[in-house]
Amino acid sequence: MNKAVKRILTASVAAVLALSCFTGCQTDETATSGDSATGGADKVYQVGICQLVQHPALDEATKGFKDALVEEFGNDGVKFDEQNAAGDSATCATITNGFAASNVDLIFANATAALQAATAATSTIPIVGTSITDYATALGMSDWTGVTGINATGTSDLAPLDEQAAMIKELFPDVKQVGILYCSAEPNSQYQASVIEKALDESSIAYKEFTTADTNDIVSVVTAACNECDVLYIPTDNTLASAAETVNSVAEPAGIPIVAGEEGICKGCGIATLSISYYSIGYEAGKMAADILVNGKDPAEMEIKYAQELTKKYVPERASALNVTIPSDYEAIVEE
Q1: What is the pTM of this model?
Q2: I want to staple 52 with a disulfide (CB 3.0 to 4.6 A). Which of 111, 200, 237, 275 is the partner?
Q3: Which one is the CATH code of 161-275+311-332: 1.25.10.10, 3.40.50.2300, 3.30.420.10, 3.30.390.50?
């Protein structure tokens, strides 16, 4: 074989090898891209978080939710677009409409107004809620079966309201009238008030509702309640939770004790609460979200989950100042 023929054969083999390498590399890249697009190892989930307002309970729920998803996917496997509506329902709508337009993989709705906005924004993107007292009330569903039947599921912050009513009677056996204080713009607060009233009726305890439209009239409403009642009850109300210090600035000088629906409100203005862990219900919501994203679970068929751990808690300083005797099975809330 002469040198010219050898050169031709060598060039031909090199060209074949180059073409083979190019085709193989192209196939590998296509496969990698395909894995990412269909939720493989390289998938990065985009999760939109809409939190109604900043206060300790909702903050803890969001933290628990994020922790659960980071444990599942790692820091690089999930990206959060976390936005706070500063207590404004219209802002919740703006936030969740943005998530829908961005076609995020899942929306986390923290509080009732956030859930309502999210379900109005999309009927296809999975929604997981938390800090929702009663999903039937929040979503306007009369025939409740434990599941929403739509693209939403989540966890509830409902503590046994009859036990909270019993707590009022236990701590204040001589109570003459309980003032039930809540924001009229929050449907779940109205629901809690109605349940508490039935429980107080059964114990023959008088009560009166005092409602605030927003944070602007809290001082005047709390002042009226303190003038007419000897104990106040505040349910898990986001508006009052965000203004607990304002409530306390009126109730504490008046010497009126407050039983609260959750620990965050109790810290700010209360004397006692039957508390759930908002971190835990947020974490459980995160696990539900992971089940949807990884296993394709349908939120329409996932039952709403409720807090399992309940603790009687009290604020020692306020109990002492108001000369209230606290039973031994209550746990002190310690200032951090």
Answers
A1: 0.75
A2: 111
A3: 3.40.50.2300
